[in-house]
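pasting input
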Amino acid sequence: MLKRRDFLKALGLGGVGTGLGFMLGESIKTPATNLIPYVVPPEDIVPGVANWYSSLCTQCNAGCGIIVRVLEGRAKKIEGNPHHPVNQGRLCAMGQAGLQALYNPDRIKTPLIRKGSRQSEEFRAITWEEALSVLAENLMKLKIASNTEKLFLLSSVIRGHMGHLFETFMQNFGSPNYIQYDLFQHKELIFANKVSMGINILPYYDIGNTNLLLSFGADFLNTWLSPVNHSLGYGHMRQGRHGSRGRLVQIEPRLSLSGANADEWIPVRPGTEGILALGLAYTIIEEGYYKGQDINEWNKILSPYKPEMISELTNTDNERIRTLAREFASARPGLAIAGENAASYTDGVNHIIAVNILNHLADNIGKTGGVISNPEAPIKKTQSLKDIDALLRNARAGEVETLITYNTNPVFTLPHNSKIQEALENIPFVVSLSCFMDETTAHADLILPTHTSLEDWGDDITEPATGYNTATIMQPAVSPLYDSRNAGDILLSTAKRLGNRLQKNMPWDNFRDFFIESWKTIYEKQRHTYAGEPVFEDFWNKVLTQGGWWDQEKRTHQSIHFIKDNVKRFISSSPSLFQGNEDEFPFYLILYAHSGYYDGRHANLPWLQEMPDPMTSVVWGTWIEINPQTAGKMGIREGDLLLVESPYGKLHVPAYLYPGIRPDTVSIPIGQGHKTYGRYAGNRGSNPLDLLPGISRHETGTIPLNSTRVKITKSSEKGNLVKMEGITKEFDRQIVQTIPPYERRQN
Amino acid sequence: MRKFFLFSFIWVATFISGYWINTSWFSDKQPAQPIAFSHRIHAGENGIPCLYCHIYAERSTAAGVPGVQKCIGCHQIIKRDAPEISKVADYWERKKPIPWIKVHNLPDFVYFSHKRHIRAGIDCNSCHGNVAGMDVITRVSSLKMGWCIDCHMSHNVKNGRDCWTCHK
Amino acid sequence: MSRFLDKLFARFNIYREPGYYGKYDYKWTIVIDLDKCDGCEACVIACHAENNLPIVGEEECSKNRAFNWIRIERYVEGEYPDVRVKFIPILCQQCGKARCEVGCPTYATYHNQDGLNVQVYNRCIGTFTCATYCPYDVRHFNWFSYKWEAPLEQQLNPDVTVREKGVMEKCTFCIQRIRAGKDHAKDEGREVTDGDIQPACVQTCPTGAMTFGDLNDPESRVSQLAKSERRYRLFEDLNTDPSVIYLKRVMKQTKQ
């Protein structure tokens, strides 16, 4: 029989057993979830079925068209718009990462007003009503005191109607001080083209159809001008044409991504790309390839550029200069492009003009596969009326009372030697219209959050277009996540509060009304081209569906006239100026846009931080590229923390041994080194712009990036260099197999 | 020794019964819903077709549950003062969705397309049981992978046994 | 004894019979033209966006644990100034005679009738056999259950599951798009046509270096491209029968 003790044990055991069995049953159940229906099911949403919206990518200035996959009101994927003439369904890495800007955890959610000092970066949340009245009050004060020119409006480069709205606002307010500033504005290219070819609009560089592409410091596959369009062209140039394969020769001191794909790399001395171009031009004249009437004049202009005379200067073999010139002139068509690297010297304009001369003499202008002019846009291009220099000067002189910034971050993208921070300190009231707490926004007094491009209306007149007028419409793919507003709406409601002239001349309730009205006007004026859309509504629906408006039938090419007299002034046989004397500062410093961060604006997108840099595979940081031979001589190993000093600043950066750079040159990518900018970008890496002098160019008002020399000292510490590559030597593994060019047969 | 066997037997027996208690009286096959909606009244007595309310079933992977608007469409007039129906009106007034408890819940890694199954001609009742007779919606199928595979095999579904047909 | 075991495991071994995979419904293939690929890594980011790949952070990257289902490998030859750089995108080759399939002790990876190497997360117990066997090093392990900082999780693709700690994952040729493409074709009552389905990487490639299609279809673009005299496959001599065909880059050799 069972003793009492055993009985109790059995009871306990039984209880535990039941409990455990019960818990087993409980634990293997799927947790209960809710099934939440809509209150009123939206008509255009079917859960599980995607809606695609056409829009505009604003991650760089190329202006590619995108389509956004939206599931139940959430943006899931961005793809290239297959109809868009610039990118034709393709999209680059930065474009794909646009989703992380929309859903970024560090977005500003409400209007903020500064609490403490400007340095403290403390803000408190306020309502829109409060924020707009603070802004209106401040502007009203300016009006009453007749100080309206003390209002400065600084935005990124905007080619569409938002820029027009800003212009209209400033005009009606009574201030001429609307400035557009981005680090990469192509102002040198625009200026050089105007001076040498008389065109106001960037032409189309027809890479796809060319036979020999000479790229003078243009990283056209990666970050220059219109990378996706150029990449499409590159693919076509290589293997898209039956029976012919175009060649690429890259001429630059530091091998860029485009250079890595070149058939030949000519590592020219920094600052001498233009001289080399003129040496090629000279050969073309001398050897009789140029058939123009003015050959004697050209001979006179180009006489200092004999290959034998410039080969030492450019550090290129003079025989190679001659053979390359012959190849280029016989390419028919060939194409020479001058990119950001060449444009970034102090006299960058001269280099570009030299390349334009080369194109002209090789008869590439106006030809398929060469430089094709683009027609004037139906909408007047917004011109930045002043340069960023004007802002700095006026601020220092105390002539700026209020600064409104939109979508631009000059505190980061201007070298601190330009004294931008001091200038800001001198401005009593700074308003930032921004999505993120970047450096400029952190110094503001009032912060008004704006929509990201996936939540916003807008448009863009593509420049460079692909030979015909192209306008892309940006429409919201999702409803705004937070309490942000369209920047145009903010200015329009401010205009209403400022009364009188402003209210009368800017009657629109919101930006969308303004911009649709303007499109109606364009439609009316150009009605004859829209056969098939007799009513504006039909036209507008078509434009929204396909993502923009482009008129492929009407390719009106303006003819380009080369202006010889102008170019004489701008070419020079002296290499570009680099600050710092050669003995103390032995290395040329070349800066370049990082393929993910661009000018630093995308450093807060984690996908792009974790994207291995294509040429070095480094992630989450900054590095300095140094030639392995030079490094060997200095005892520098990979990952060593180096102290880089220019006459204007210093940085600590880890070293990366990079065979694709001249021994007398070092290179640092731009983009990291943010002090604030969210959790992914803040306090990470270094900003090489701080090594630059703050002097801007005379013609364009932009800061030359390749304008200083540096010295390198090895520090005793190990830097933090995280790279994803293993060994970059193939040995016999036959991983990337190649065939030599003469054996090539088309597929 | 005998004690050991006795105790083991007790332990095993109570373990099994604990599990059995859980599955029969505490099962999640028939959870309590926030509003006592009866399919028997709507689909059975009144003969409302499934797709009238579950509108997405034929065009999407998800079948969906009707929005509050669908309910209020009839019930703003029909029996609006009945206790359960006034709850619906209350949700409608406050513009809040009714937080139903999901009965047929598949894990995130399963891809199940209602559209494909309906277009293959499968009747709603074959998986969901006799819904028109249920006062409280009950899960009659195990929804386990073996059950899915059995049906795929017996109907000779093309690539029916391939893992990537259903696993995401 | 071994005959007994063979009989016992016969059902499991049928996948290893030669010719078993010979008859496919589709034979999904990607052709990558290395003369067009410029190493821009748009495919890498597109893959991250499409397949819910987590961000691991700097520390984990230093341990080489980043999730790049497709990666660009760069090989540098020569010394300054005669430097040659070559790029190659490497993704799961969906091998016809996959080593990973042979090694997996739980059959979490096997070959399906479309010619794809299927990875079933539910069966995976994380033994790493497949990753060790893979000669292309394309398998990635979930060392943690990664979190997305709100609201980044709103971007997650619902057609792709989010993997938990302890399972292996790899490129799937965007099976969710293949499935959706077949679904769409079935809705319209037709067969899948060439160009209907494109994985994220193929769709976004700016130079157009990648092409996806059915090698069984003689009219498809991949079949035309696969006839090229420049064709080769990676580590062909290892006999893995990959479904990714590369076209050789046209390049002058370095002076050695």
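fyi The longest helix of chain A spans residues 4-27.
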